[in-house]
Amino acid sequence: MSPRQHTDVVRHAPAVEQTLALFESARRPAVPQIEDGYLDLLGEEDPTGAHPGQRLMLSGTLASVYERLWRPLGGRLLMGATGPGMREERRMALDMLELSPNDRVLDVACGPGNFTRSFAGATREGLVVALDASKTMLAVAVRETESANVAYVRGDACALPFRDGSFDAICCFAALYLIQEPMRALDEIVRVLAPGGRVALLSSCNRGPLSASATNAVVRSLSGVRIFARDELTRALRDRGLSDIEQRVVGLAQFVSARKRQERACSTR
Question: What is this structure's pTM?
Answer without folding.
Answer: 0.92
